[in-house]
Specification:
By secondary structure, this protein is α+β, with helices and mostly antiparallel strands. The chain has 12 helices and 11 strands. About 40% of the residues lie in helices and about 20% in strands.
Length: about 325
Amino acid sequence: MDEISQLLRMARLEATLDKRCLLAGSTEMDVASGGPRDIPFHVLLEGECDLEVGGTLHHMTAGDVVVIPSGGRHRIITAGAGSAGSIAERPGATFSLTTSAAGGQPVIDLFCGHYTIGAGAGAILFGSLPTPTQVSLFRSEDSRAELTRLSESMRAEADRDGPGSAAIMSAFCTVLIAMVLRTSTASSAHGRIWTAVADSSMSATIQEVLARPGDRWTIERLSTRTSMSRATFIRRFHAATGMTFGQFLTRARLMTAADLLAGSDLAVAAVAAAVGYRSESAFSRAFRSETGRTPARFRRAHQESLLPGWRRSGQPRPAQGS
């Protein structure tokens, strides 16, 4: 399995399309905060608009995908003369259709949704991305063609909005995040996407570590493998990813550890050893620092989340047919 697919699998990601926005000029749309593990995203298929996050405006053009790992309230603003108008929403079978309350010809075609991620690897992965993460999929001919085909399919399914549409749109939105994570043209103003760096040597290093996080990776070993001096490797890795190699290695190991804790019966000590920690206590400290829970509590919470609601609440099992 390639590294992007592996990361998304470990993240236990679920994609949901919330609304399609056909907004006219001079319109503002506020987007409320979601749940603690909800990551909002927007994909602009046509037109231009501004996205306001934390008081800062980010301009979007057709082909832009924006993911907001920090969550929180934000706002979509379309240009136009006069004071900004409000929106009107019409619920559909799968998602809402949002238009400008005052009417008018749409100037943007924007799909808005959210990714729900796992509390372990998912939180670590998205926590390592810049906020917002903004990628233009029209910057290369290959990605332009891919997004054009995808947007046509999304629009066609949005117009249909019937049985199966929720699952189909979820799959389309999962395709979008995969395209974002493998695109090395993230806006430099917002940071770097370490999952798809332009430096081929650093990209190969990332792939190797993700494939075998439990190996004894050192800068000396990697600089030798890449035929660089230690200082050159350190500089190029930071320039490519925006983080130190030590930070990346810790995240790679803890994402794998969270996946093992959630998906296997390995003891905590065995998980620690599998991802390269010689000490279970050192592993537990690092895991708690990154996720807010000890490995044992993380595993217990994950197992409880899989139980039916009546078992989580301690209530008697409902009678059949009730």
